[in-house]
Structure formats: C-alpha cells, structure tokens
Design a protein that fits this description.
about 0% strand, about 120 residues, mainly alpha
C-alpha cells in the first residue's frame, strides 16, 4: 500500500510534466530553477527486473522505478541537446532535473529499506 501511494504521487508529478510541455508548446514562459540533483547511482548497478510479473517485490518495484526515471532523464537531456530553441532547452533541462529528483527519491528509499536490511 505504501509504495502504491508513492507511485500515485509520481504519476501526478508526471502529469505536471505533461502540462509544462503543453504550456511550452503554446508559447508560455516556464520558470526554470538552476539546482542540480545529486545522483547516488544505485539504480545504475542493479540488474533489470521483468515488469510482466504480477508478484513484484518492493525491491523489484523500486528497481523498475529507478530505471524508468533514469530513462526519462536521458530522454529530456537528449531533447535539450537537440533543440536550438533556448526556452525549450531550459524546459527540457528542468524536466530532466525533476526526473533526476524522482530517481534520487527512489534510490534513497532503496538505500533505506533494501540495502540497510541486507
């Protein structure tokens, strides 16, 4: 139940990303913070987990979440590198940092509840 709440919260944040992209497309100015997010790199060293199973453990769910957030970070970073539009680049970089923040939260959770138990 606890991880379900976490994933629902992240789902809402992802909808916020969609709204920012729609606002950017409409020509609205999006405020962009400067802060960089720390990367613990825990998810970088974990093996892939199959998402087709119905019996995912809490550990498996966290691994999948870290991998997905890393992929989203890479997507937004790549989009930022490919655009010539400064405002779009800033928004993509901001969204990449938000994905990095999500990954960090999952890595902290993994460190606190999985690594500390082992």
């Amino acid at each position: 139940k606890e991880i379900q709440k976490v994933f629902e919260q992240f789902s809402q944040e992802e909808l916020g990303h969609k709204k920012k992209l729609e606002r950017m497309k409409a020509g609205d100015e999006i405020p962009v913070p400067d802060a960089k997010v720390q990367d613990l790199k825990i998810g970088d060293y974990l093996v892939e987990v199959s998402t087709s199973r119905d019996d995912l453990s809490y550990q498996d769910a966290l691994i999948i979440a870290m991998k997905e957030e890393k992929a989203a970070f890479k997507l937004y970073s790549d989009l930022a590198a490919r655009t010539d539009h400064p405002a779009a680049r800033d928004v993509f970089l901001m969204l990449a940092q938000e994905e990095a923040r999500h990954k960090l939260r999952f890595e902290i959770e993994y460190d606190d509840y999985i690594l500390s138990e082992n």
